[in-house]
Amino acid sequence: MVPNLRPQKHTNQNTNKEVGNMSRRRAINPTRPIGITLKQSLIQRIDDYLNYNQSRSLLISNCIERYLDDSPSVSQTSTRNLMGALASRNDIDETLRELLIRYLQRPEKLPESGKK
Length: 116
Hints:
With 116 residues, the protein is mainly alpha-helical.
């Protein structure tokens, strides 16, 4: 029996066309298109900033990553700052707001030095 040396064919699910078995390397972190709405003036500023061969998508992706990497998480934020942020919200009970403000008006206790 002679082995079949032809590349195996399969059907592309998106186009329903037969394609060869030659596949490209897959990206480690593949991209996916999304739709967002931006003000026309912001789009114009982006276009003015970029050269003709630079990508809007790459610029926006980099900006989002930088924003997320620089934003402190709740676990990294001091309790006092979290309480201040909570007191400034519009959706909390007035009693809780008063308690938070009263607490925040107290002088902050500084950590004791290593004196004996």
